[in-house]
């Protein structure tokens, strides 16, 4: 599906490990005063003065977390950074540094790694992140990317999964289900391509959901918005595995129940129309689709006036006592217990 | 070679991601006051007060960095932590936290991951490290481990690769070449085992070098020793790729040359005897063997009285002006330019 217009293939062995990492990261800029020493020593040195920090890490494996038959390497580099930053923002922190480790089999030429790192660099620039460490090595099969992200916290601004209280409002950013439906479109086109490699798909109508899948964004803006609105969520998590799974995490960690209203779940028109086309229930997609990288949080009802009518935020339910359980309240007003079905990587 | 005495095989899908990471890390203890929030949220929260920190990361891939036909999983877990801590100590820092991400194919049962995490836990206990994050996911092939280590620095105590000055002494800890010779013994036994699986090898004579390969230690003690001796190295690096490669790194980063004396290179008697047995030159093994995880550093000549006669430290040469180049001075008193041959992962 993705035509390789880059005919040049430079073997990785021509550079060796040290030449390679120097080459790939030579344009990376350092912007944060907290970065004392970046790539090029045994470890990076960082100085956050008195600030607390957050640390999160993710490992992405070809064939499990991404499919290079329809994911351009530049997008993959970008996404591998973004999914980690999303975890930093979910702590109500400001992302500042990342390290990136990459392992590739010898089927990848230098130009492929250059594309991957171009995506990493683009994300680093846009989110104002210093790339302070990492390495490259070989793998026996496929591409493996490990990113660790570090962020800094203003004094006591961290927000955990625990902290939601009965009567708190349940709020979600953006809209849901787009990344999953984008994946369905890409998988379908992959099958079409297998049958007819000359077919040129017209994907314009799906561009929003395809972008949600291939080039998601992390909600850096929400951390700033909440600070500007002087709202500190009582609990927060990012939506990587689907709304249902994340609501259950908040409830479990906070020792509470909740009512989630089906009619309130924010859906983009393209998600709705593609769900109709694929004959999938859009609520199921929003609940279990995953990879939306929106933020889910709870706020005290006292903060309602500060967030109401904000186009970035949708109130989708409220927290209840633990004994009430966690339920989806359907449009037909029936109550269905929420189940986590998002994460299927170990099921085969 | 390694008999699987553990007959129980529990499929990973019985736990799912969240149950799995909870299960594997449930015995992990938190000891550092700098660990505010450990595993179980979107990110760990750490508080180093005014201290600077160091961050380093490594990605280990089955078939490239380790061979499970002779590496027990518990040892592998231990080693994957130690190799990262070694980078922290090479900055003259105190290691405090790690995150661990693991991806495994479905050929691994739960019991295999329990062994791996038992090794991680053992290393964390011995080196007094909090395991504060990480995840598990599936891979399409083999085992992949990514560890990020964090350490803290007392005010301005960091030591870089840059900083060595002409006339500084070049010092190495412990002895060299053991890990490489241990690997040679294990590779030989693997070949023997392929021919005769009932052969019970007697590896007692090689136990020192096999342990250097399978269960290396990081020189935490040296950071403390140097502080006690009130010696701050002018430059430092850990020896992961072989002495030759690391000396060249120090010279390049410090913009200096050096003379390294062959007769001074510390070798264990078992390394010498196994080199004779395998008909390999022991100096070549020490220069290019790698994986010894000793520390290489330079000190001002003024500090010589503080370190002399210390059994942990060997002076193996001295720094010269850049124009003099970097040379090995042989026992026959000839000068051979040093070459980095240690890292061959991209050569096939």
Automatic annotation (TrEMBL), chains A, B:
Origin: domain of life: Bacteria
Residues where Mg(2+) 3 binds: 42, 87, 238
Keywords: ATP-binding, Kinase, Magnesium, Metal-binding, Nucleotide-binding, Thiamine biosynthesis, Transferase
Matches recorded under CDD domains: ThiL
Binding residues annotated for Mg(2+) 1, in chain numbering: 57-58, 135
GO molecular function, one term: kinase activity
Catalytic reaction equation(s): thiamine phosphate + ATP = thiamine diphosphate + ADP
Chain sites annotated for binding Mg(2+) 2: 58, 87
Enzyme Commission numbers on file: 2.7.4.16
Pathway note: Cofactor biosynthesis; thiamine diphosphate biosynthesis; thiamine diphosphate from thiamine phosphate: step 1/1
Residues annotated as binding Mg(2+) 4: 42, 56, 87
Annotated Pfam families: AIRS (PF00586)
Residue ranges occupied by any PurM-like N-terminal domain in the UniProt entry: 40-152
Record-linked InterPro entries: PurM-like_C_sf, PurM-like_N, PurM-like_N_sf, ThiL-like
List of residues binding Mg(2+) 5: 241
Binding site for ATP: 117, 134-135, 161, 240
Residues that bind substrate: 65, 291, 343
Top-level enzyme category: transferase
NCBIfam families, per the entry: thiL
Family stated for the protein in its record: Belongs to the thiamine-monophosphate kinase family.
Other information: Reaction mechanism of ThiL seems to utilize a direct, inline transfer of the gamma-phosphate of ATP to TMP rather than a phosphorylated enzyme intermediate.
Function as written in the Swiss-Prot or TrEMBL entry: Catalyzes the ATP-dependent phosphorylation of thiamine-monophosphate (TMP) to form thiamine-pyrophosphate (TPP), the active form of vitamin B1.
Protein name: Thiamine-monophosphate kinase
């Amino acid at each position: 599906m993705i035509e390789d217009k880059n005919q040049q293939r430079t073997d990785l062995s021509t550079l060796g490990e040290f030449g390679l990492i120097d080459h790939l990261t030579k344009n990376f800029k350092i912007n944060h005063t907290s970065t004392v020493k970046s790539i090029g020593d045994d470890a990076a040195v960082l100085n956050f003065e008195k600030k607390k920090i957050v640390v999160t890490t993710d490992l992405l494996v070809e064939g499990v977390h991404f499919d290079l038959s329809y994911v351009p390497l530049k997008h993959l580099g970008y996404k591998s950074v973004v999914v980690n930053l999303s975890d930093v923002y979910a702590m109500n922190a400001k992302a500042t540094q990342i390290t990136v480790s990459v392992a590739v089999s010898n089927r990848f030429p230098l130009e492929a790694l250059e594309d991957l790192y171009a995506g990493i660099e683009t994300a680093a620039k846009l989110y104002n992140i210093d790339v302070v460490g990492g390495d490259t090595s070989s793998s026996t099969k496929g591409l493996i990317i490990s990113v660790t992200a570090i962020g800094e916290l203003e004094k006591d601004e961290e927000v955990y999964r625990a902290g939601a209280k009965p009567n708190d409002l349940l709020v979600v950013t953006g809209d849901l289900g787009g990344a999953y439906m984008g994946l369905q479109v890409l998988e379908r086109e992959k099958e079409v391509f297998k049958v007819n490699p000359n077919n040129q798909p017209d994907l314009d109508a799906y561009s929003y959901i395809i972008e949600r899948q291939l080039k998601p964004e992390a909600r850096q803006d929400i951390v700033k918005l909440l600070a500007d609105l002087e709202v500190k969520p009582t609990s927060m998590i990012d939506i990587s595995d689907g709304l249902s799974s994340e609501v259950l995490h908040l409830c479990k960690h906070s020792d509470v129940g909740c009512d989630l209203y089906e009619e309130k779940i924010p859906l983009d028109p393209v998600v709705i129309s593609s769900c109709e086309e694929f004959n999938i229930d859009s609520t199921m997609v929003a609940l279990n689709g995953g990879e939306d990288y929106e933020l889910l949080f709870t706020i005290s009802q006292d903060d309602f006036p500060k967030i109401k009518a904000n186009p970035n935020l949708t109130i989708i339910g409220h927290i209840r006592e633990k004994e009430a359980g966690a339920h989806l309240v359907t449009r037909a007003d029936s109550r269905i217990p929420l189940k986590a079905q998002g994460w299927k990587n170990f099921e085969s």
